[in-house]
Design goal:
single chain; alpha+beta; 4-stranded mixed sheet
Length: about 220
């Protein structure tokens, strides 16, 4: 398993893997303990999660296969998610999970971890940096929460419906995901899911200004 680590912004660590399979198998349980609609805050085995994902994910329902490694290409987790893994609540750990934990064993304080692979799409990386800033930068967090609150109710419902139907997000992370998608992926949301309005584009532009300011600091 080969990956590189950099710290593009203070307390935000970016792991870039050579292979997508290694990325997904390393991050899977950390990510799903953080935001899975079923397993957020719970302790579970790799086998247990795979069985659930096969039965409930959109592609799994159609094919009966475990398609997690094909479905996801970017990951992001706050540092507190590592604690139950360090405490043995997810034992036995996989070899990849052990290597991952070892990399962050001596880092103190609040930080954020992003995972990508290969020649990373800029939107994927920026989306995950947005999540990281939402957790590590209190000023950014306050500004973005205010902007999310300004989104018209009809648009917010469409965004939440999309997040819920994707099968990948617990409702507790909807606010953070809404901020990241509208800040970074507004063209995608309009083209792929028909989520658009004049008011929403206005919020997007304001969010972009906040993101550009804080991601360069």
């Amino acid at each position: 398993m080969i990956f590189k680590i950099e710290e593009p912004i203070k307390n935000i660590f970016h792991l870039n893997f050579d292979k997508k399979k290694d990325l997904c198998e390393t991050f899977m349980r950390f990510q799903e303990h953080f935001e899975s609609p079923e397993y957020r805050g719970k302790f579970f085995s790799i086998k247990e999660y795979k069985a659930w994902y096969r039965k409930t994910s959109p592609k799994g329902k159609k094919t009966g296969r475990f398609t997690y490694n094909q479905d996801w290409s970017g990951f992001n987790i706050p540092s507190y998610i590592l604690e139950p893994f360090k405490e043995g609540k997810f034992n036995p750990l996989s070899k990849k999970e052990k290597i991952f934990l070892k990399e962050f064993g001596n880092i103190e304080g609040k930080f954020y971890i992003i995972g990508t692979y290969g020649s990373t799409n800029l939107d994927t990386l920026d989306h995950d940096i947005a999540h990281a800033l939402f957790y590590t930068d209190p000023v950014y967090n306050k500004k973005m929460k205010k902007l999310v609150a300004s989104i018209p109710a009809k648009d917010l419902k469409k965004i939440h419906d999309h997040l819920g139907s994707s099968g990948g997000y617990h409702e507790d992370v909807f606010e953070d995901e809404t901020h990241a998608y509208i800040t970074i992926n507004m063209p995608y949301m309009e083209k792929k899911h028909g989520i658009t309005s004049e008011e929403l584009w206005s919020v997007h532009k304001k969010m972009q200004k906040v993101f550009q300011k804080h991601s360069k600091s």
